[in-house]
Amino acid sequence: MLITNVTSLTSSLNEIYYIIEIHLLGRPSVEEMNMAKMVKVALNILADVLFDLLKLETYGDPTYVFRPRNQCDITFLYGEHRRMNKHKHSSSWGGKWTDIAGTDNALGDDIERIRLTRNELQHMKLFALDDTRYTELCTILKDVLNRFDKHINPSHLYTDRLDKILENTVEREDVECF
Question: Which residues of the chain fall below pLDDT 50?
Answer without folding.
Answer: 1-3, 178
